[in-house]
From TrEMBL:
This is Butyryl-CoA dehydrogenase. Its cofactor is FAD. Keywords: FAD, Flavoprotein, Oxidoreductase. The keyword Cytoplasm does not apply. PANTHER family: ACYL-COA DEHYDROGENASE, ISOVALERYL-COA DEHYDROGENASE, MITOCHONDRIAL-RELATED. One of its GO terms (molecular function) is acyl-CoA dehydrogenase activity. Transmembrane segments: none annotated. Belongs to the acyl-CoA dehydrogenase family. It comes from Muricomes intestini.
Length: 377
């Protein structure tokens, strides 16, 4: 792939590639069957991957948005769940990085870099795509905020140490009346609810959350009062780059399995890889993976250069996620009956892929965003 990584980025890429092959990929099937892998989490911490892009002063490795995309991309080549876990952790921690006070950064970013798990709580059972429709509410009571409500579909909930929770602070103002709060695990009134029994990405933990009169100090608010909606949207711009990276890595994982199979399996006296019908599938898959990879690193570079990247991140996520599902289904087709069996892993990757078209902005919402932006130009 044509992309100019720095020497340092190449070193990180090679390190994560090696780590993924040795530690991540071999555990992916176990996670699909058993759920979140605490041992792997410890290994990610020891490898310094939980805060690779955070500033050195807060315990990170000072990587930029391209480095973040490299880490997610390489992890996804072995386990989409693991890549999604790290993506969701960064989605929440980055809100403190970009909008927190110095006091909040000094307290929470070293925790994030050391491996305490963060989660981003925007979605509710009755408000997903319509993010401004959330009902959780924080009401001022003297010097504190009293938070009530709940969240649903929050990646890392149930295993997280720190939650960034979006709640209405002035409901009559719609999206202009939402604020972001830091809620630590163990806070009185925070209840972890039902764990979702998901189709894929089963190595990540997803639960319901409920808030019963949680008392939060004024210092728990991140960013200005009522600025939470824009903060969340900006954070999602970054996370959508990660989804592009997961899509590229996951699709490559599936194609690698299919490639080995196609070179081994023979029909009509030759490997199926030599049949044009199969060859064409690989040509299309490879071209689409390359396109997703380039779109992803291009938008990561825009982010690293401090440019607004809402449109390009939405495009990378939309194109990448749909490409990824399609690629996994094509790989199942290449493997035929074996592709439909759990033994050959591709069916698991296809189940993981589907989430990418739903989480962090559905394809429909992204088409609305992209269409409206292009037509307004
Ligand atoms: N960056 C900066 N500002 C932004 C922005 C961005 N990316 N997106 C919107 N804004 C600003 C707008 O400019 C506007 O500001 P002004 O009023 O000052 O002009 C304001 O925010 C409101 O924007 P919209 O009018 O576009 O707001 P809307 O209510 O119409 O919502 C939407 C639009 C795009 C559909 C939005 O609701 C949305 O993105 N929905 C999808 C939410 C989503 O992706 N959810 C997944 C969460 S992931 C999760 O929860 C799971 C997990 O664990 C990770």
């Amino acid at each position: 792939m044509l992309f100019d990584f720095t020497q340092e980025q190449l070193m990180i890429r090679d390190m994560v590639r090696d780590f993924t092959a040795k530690e991540v990929e071999p555990r992916d099937k176990w996670m699909d069957e058993n759920g979140f892998d605490h041992e792997l989490h410890k290994k990610l911490c020891n490898a310094g991957l939980m805060g690779v892009h955070l500033p050195e002063q807060y315990g990170g490795a000072d990587g930029d948005a391209i480095t973040s995309a490299i880490v997610i991309h390489e992890l996804a080549k072995g386990s989409a769940s693991t890549a999604l876990f790290v993506d969701a952790h960064w989605l929440a921690a980055d809100i403190i990085l970009y909008h927190g006070t110095e006091e909040q950064k000094s307290k929470y970013l070293p925790m994030a870099a050391a491996g305490k798990i963060f989660a981003f709580g925007l979605t509710e059972s009755s408000a997903g795509s319509d993010a401004a429709g959330i009902k959780s509410q924080a009401v001022k009571d003297g010097d504190t905020w009293v938070l009530n409500g709940g969240k649903a579909w929050i990646t890392n909930s149930g295993v997280a140490d720190v939650y960034i929770i979006l709640a209405k602070t002035q409901p009559e103002l719609g999206n202009k009346g939402i604020s972001a709060f830091i809620v630590e695990e163990g806070t009185e009134g925070l209840k972890i609810g039902k764990k979702e029994d998901k189709m894929g990405m089963r190595g990540t933990c997803t639960t319901e959350l409920s808030f019963d009169n949680i008392r939060l100090p004024a210092s728990a608010m991140v960013g200005a009062e009522n600025s939470g909606f824009k903060i969340a949207m900006m954070a999602l711009d970054g996370a959508r780059i990660s989804v592009g990276a997961i899509a590229a890595g996951l699709a490559e994982h599936a194609m690698t399995i299919a490639k080995h199979y196609a070179n081994e399996r023979t029909t009509f006296g030759k490997p199926i890889a030599k049949h044009q019908g199969i060859m064409f599938k690989f040509a299309d898959m490879a071209a689409h993976i390359e396109a997703t990879t380039l779109m992803t690193y291009n938008v990561a570079r825009m982010k690293a250069e401090g440019k607004r990247h809402t449109l390009e991140a939405a495009m990378a996520k939309l194109f990448g996620s749909e490409m990824c599902t399609k690629t996994c289904m094509e790989c199942i087709q290449v493997l035929g009956g074996y592709g439909y069996s759990k033994e050959y892993h591709v069916e698991r990757l296809a189940r993981d892929a589907k989430l990418l078209e739903i989480g962090e902005g559905t394809s429909e919402i992204l088409r609305m965003l992209i269409g409206a932006t292009i037509l307004a130009k």
